[in-house]
Structures are given as structure tokens and as C-alpha cells.
Amino acid sequence: MTTTIKLYDLAAKDESIRFSPNCWRVRLALAHKNLPVETIAWRFTEKQEIAFSGQGKVPVLVDAGRCVVDSWAIAEYLEATYPDRPSLFNGVAGKALTRFVNDWTETVLHPAIARLILPEIHAMLHPRDQDYFKTTREAFFGCSLADLAAEREAHLSALRQALRPLAATLGQQPYLAGEGPAYADHVVFAALQWQRVCGGHDVTSAESALSGWFTRMLNAYEGLALAMPAAA
Ligand SMILES: N[C@@H](CCC(=O)N[C@@H](CS)C(=O)NCC(=O)O)C(=O)O
Fold it and tell me: Percentage of residues in the chain with pLDDT exceeding 90?
């Protein structure tokens, strides 16, 4: 008997709004493997709801009684557990290069996006999450959310600059993984989906190769990502 995979997924005040980049990667990876999932809305301060996982962050994946945390570990788990489904990494060399894409996304792209959209994220959170979010993020970035908002244009321009290597690669091939999307695309796209859902800034249209790929990823997997509304 198969049981539906469950995913604890970060939600805004409106629980239908799911915005976490780390969760979106997993949603796309599951769709890539054609595995149905039931998502469970989770908010930052609901640590007790995921205490069974032994830590306090999402994504948390539960599959047939097995619990897996950390998006990279989840991707590895899905690849190992469902080897007959479409591959997330396309082999050992593909996995090694995807590891770089994952690390670049987390160390360069995520901070650049966070500086741009943290004030907007704060505004869309459930009120009981807002103080926790403000305190932890201001401590991490060493400045106030108001300071970040005041420098929005500079952060937008820094993000566009950070996206240039992607535009260069996507000018030569349709996806980061080559002819079709794979986990490298899921990771980078999920970061831009986070920006789309929370910030709604135009960060791709100046580069036609980048915006073409972004549109293809929005429409991939039967429009999974497109179904989540963009910020106004
Ligand atoms: N390395 C983890 C990072 C997970 C992570 O940072 N998740 C965020 C949401 S995107 C979270 O749950 N944060 C909870 C908190 O800040 O308390 C992964 O890749 O899954």
C-alpha cells in the first residue's frame, strides 16, 4: 500500500500562500518525479508541530513513516528511493555540479533576494510570526527591516547583477540541467519564485534568455509554480 507523501510547507498569514524557496525546490522535485504530495501549512513559530523531525525548519518530508529534513537531503532521498522516475541529478557528474548550483544559490542568490524582499515577507506573515521573523532576520543581516526597505533600489540592482551568470548560461541552453529541467533548475527557480510570490519585482525581463527560462519553469509540471499568485 502506498501512502501520500506529506510536506510541511511554510505559509503566510493567508495559508494558501506558500513562499519558502527551500520548500518550493522540494515541490518541484516531487512534481519532476511525478509523486503526489499533501502539503501541510506551517508557520515559523509552530516549532512544536515539527518537533518530531528533531529540528525547527521546513521543508520536512514524511514518506511512508520516514521523516527527512533539509532540502538537499530530501532531493538525495527522492533520487535514491525513486530511481525509476525521472532523475533529479542526471548521474554522478550532474549531482556534483548541482551541488555547486545549490551552494551558489544559498550563499549568493538567497541573500541578494532576502535583502530585497524581507520587508515584504514581514508584512505578509501571520501576526504571531512577525516579531520572531523581524528579530531573527535583523540579527542575521545586522540592520533593520526599515533600513533594507530604504535601500530597495540598490538591492534590486544588486540582484539583477547576481543573475547575470544565469542569463549567460541560459542563452546557450534551454535549462541549467541542459535540454530539460532537473534539480539545478528547481533550486534556482525556487529562489526566484520566492521573490515573485513575496516581492513581485521584475528581475528577469531585461534578459530575454532568463525570462524565457523563468516562463518555462512557471509553466512546467502543469503550471505548478504559476498557480501560486505573484505579489501585487
Ligand atoms: N538547509 C535547510 C534550510 C531550511 C530553512 O532555512 N528553512 C526556513 C524556511 S525557507 C525555515 O524553516 N526557517 C525557520 C526559522 O527561521 O525559524 C534546507 O535546505 O532545507
Answer: 98
